[in-house]
Amino acid sequence: MLVQISMRMLLLALCLHNGPVAVGANGASGDGGDIISHAFGVVQRLEALLVQGNASDVTLRVETPNADEVKLIQAHSLVLSLQSPAFEGLLLSRNGSGTLVLKESSDCAAVFDKFIRYLYCGEISLQLEQATPLHKLATKYRVLALQQGISQYMTQNLARDSPSGHVVGWYEYALQAGDSTTRDSCLDYLAWNLSSVLRSKEWTTISGQLLMSLLQRSDLVLQSEMELFAALEAWILRNEPDGLTAENALRAVRYAMMPPRELFRLQTQSPVLARYQESVRDLLYMSYQFHSASPLHMAKYFDVNCSLFVPRNYLSPAWGSPWVINSPTRDDRSTSFLTHLGPSGHDANKRVTWNALFSPRWLPVSMRSTETGGATQPARVDGAQPRIMITPATSSVDFAGVNFQKTVLVMARQQGKVVVKHIYNFYQSTEENGDFLANADLNSRSSQYLTGGSLYLHVVVKPLYQTLITTTTKN
Q: Tens-of-pLDDT digits for all 475 residues of the chain?
């Protein structure tokens, strides 16, 4: 108890030495008057206190299993207890000993000095590879502010370049630590920027669990299903997983989204498919049938609502188009583009022309009052949110029984890269989402969603056949 009192007097002396923290108009602090702050000087003296070990009353002995090196840090009970409830408990239970023995893994021991310095100074500098061990320490010693700060750092630095990659490692750690926010941020980044991930060194290091989490998603952003299969084949050849893992992964490939010529090539040239062809034979058969008959005819015999027949977010021109909107806060913008009617080989020669309208200030339906020809028109006013509407240029009997889901990929600048930041799905207008670009702040030049003052989007049109099932079931 005497030690804690002396430490409080020491900290008070530091504050007084640097001048008053707050002085009001009548000389009293905290009355809303002008502030004179010497907080930076106090922090500097606290750091010097740690470095020099003055008035230290506890020695932190950091030991690493199976290692001879021991790290000793002269510290102060009051600072440790104020910053960490876990340290407070450990210090109270040390039975008067001047040494506190701490068992840490080698990666945590390597950054332990940084962690302790944060407790004294309230700031920390770190590199990508130090984020995980520092988060472990912040979690173990219940330093909530640092724990949250590192989680935010991870989310903001997913796109940063690193020699061997870091997002997969952060995902695996967040999954183990129960950090759902960081886990989901990592998983979304991997899924929405999969083409670049497939070309990185990180791809072959992912676990079977993460692999399946990605393969089962319909919102993967990549050039084509063939690109995904080639990367999966490389993963299997490199990692040599057990047969069940390989079969489950191969059955998650959407073969129906590949043209028949590519399916034939895979069956004759792929060493992985040659080894596991029996486990996916039924999927290949259904895919060939899908390409040879109309979707309406297919729906009479197969469940076309299963994932095999659901497109992902493919970037190839057959599925959509990039769209760069210059000065997106000024006036409406429009564009047109062509897509295939559907992924089925039966529809290979059929095209659909799409008209897209971007409005920076689109009033919600509930607030519209203008009508033209009996149809409600979008009204644009200041303060309303941006919206996109995508409609076919002409109607066609070929559309019968097919729903077209539109997907807008929104790019953003992160760490010098342009990455997919958000994905919005809708059937006619992004108004169906309600939060389209709600936090983009397109009026600010510093907005991460603007590159050179322009908004970079990619529109994907995905034909879905669910309604065919309903029709054939009733018949």
A: 323 333 444 444 444 344 443 444 444 455 667 888 777 776 777 776 666 767 788 999 999 988 778 999 999 999 999 999 999 999 998 877 789 999 999 999 999 999 999 998 889 999 999 999 999 999 999 999 999 999 999 999 999 988 888 999 999 999 999 999 999 999 999 999 999 999 999 999 999 999 999 999 999 999 999 999 999 999 999 999 999 999 999 999 999 999 999 999 999 999 999 999 999 999 999 999 889 887 777 777 777 778 998 999 999 999 999 999 999 998 899 999 999 988 888 887 889 999 999 999 876 555 555 444 444 455 545 556 899 999 999 877 677 667 899 999 999 988 888 899 999 999 999 999 888 998 888 888 889 899 889 999 999 999 987 544 444 333 3
pTM: 0.83
Dig out the tokens for 252 from the structure. Answer: 């998650």
Strand 450-451 to strand 385-392: parallel, antiparallel, or no bridges (unpaired)? unpaired
Q: Which helix (H) or strand (E) holds 396?
A: none
Q: 446: how many CB neighbours lie within 10 A of its CB?
A: 7
Alpha-carbon span 7 to 192, nearest angstrom = 52
d(CA 176, CA 187): 14
B/e letters for 79-115, b = 16+ CB within 10 Å, e = fewer, are: bbbebbeebbebbeeeeeeeebebebeeebbbbbeeb
Q: How far apart are CA 385 and CA 437, in angstroms?
A: 8
Strand partners, 414: 417
Residue 61, helix vs strand vs coil? strand
Pair 183, 171: CB distance under 8 Å: yes
**Gap between the Cα atoms of 399 and 391, Å rounded:** 12
Spatial contact of 460 and 313, defined as CB atoms under 8 Å apart: yes
Distance CA 400, CA 468 (A): 9
Domains along the chain with CATH numbers: 2-154 (3.30.710.10), 194-292 (1.25.40.420), 314-368+376-474 (2.60.210)
Q: Which two tokens stand for residue 392?
A: 């076919």
Rounded (10°) CA dihedral 382, 388, 389, 393: 120
193/410 Cα distance (integer angstroms): 12
Which residue from 135, 169, 177 is spatially nearest to 152, judged by alpha carbons? 135
Residue 221 is encoded by which pair of tokens? Answer: 């952003």
b/e per residue 201-220 (b: at least 16 CB within 10 A): ebbebbebebbebbbebbeb
